[in-house]
Amino acid sequence: MKELVCITCPNSCRMQAELENGQWKVTGNKCKRGQQFAESEMTCPKRTFSTTVKTAWDSVPVIPVRVSREIPKDKIFQIMEEINHMTVRKPMGRGDVLIPDVLGLHADVIVTSSVLKEYLEENNKENTCMHKDCALEGGTSQESTCMRRNRAQEGGNYE
């Protein structure tokens, strides 16, 4: 028997789930949603999560992102691996899709703040990468040297 606390409504029912004859028997729930939650939690638990992704600008080193829908709990670390290998190198704001259909799960990784886009617009730096390597090379051109180099070397980075 597994004890659960339902998170689908404000009741926060304490439930017990037990597999009997191939069916999940759930007790303690006050509504139908509790039964559905318990079955889902026991067969394929899903979660949504938020994190940050690094950027190429020292003044805005990270921006917040989240998945657009619940994903299988066991895929969180794989998605984090994808995110941790990325560096945002273009203006992005709230609602922009950073990784479409991540891992083929029909969920996007989306940006949840416009702090980077606003910073770049306020400082008139839309096409200027402030990445340390770029600054050393005087990266003030339309497309900075580090952007071109990284696109060539890191084919998977989103620009």
Secondary-structure map with pairings?
Layout: E1 2-5, E2 14-20, E3 23-27, H1 32-43, E4 46-47, E5 50-57, E6 60-67, E7 71-72, H2 76-84, E8 87-88, E9 97-99, E10 109-111, H3 115-122, H4 132-136, H5 145-153
Parallel strand pairs: 5-8
Antiparallel strand pairs: 1-2, 2-3, 4-7, 5-6, 6-10, 9-10
Structural features:
single chain; 159 residues; alpha+beta; 5-stranded mixed beta sheet; 3-stranded antiparallel beta sheet; 27% helix; elongated; disordered C terminus
Structure description:
- This protein is of the alpha+beta class.
- The protein contains five helices and ten strands, in the order βββαββββαβββααα.
- The chain has helices at residues 32-43, 76-84, 115-122, 132-136, 145-153, and strands spanning 2-5, 14-20, 23-27, 46-47, 50-57, 60-67, 71-72, 87-88, 97-99, 109-111.
- The strands form three sheets. A five-stranded mixed sheet has the order 8-5-6-10-9. A three-stranded antiparallel sheet has the order 1-2-3, with helices on one face.
- The termini are far apart.
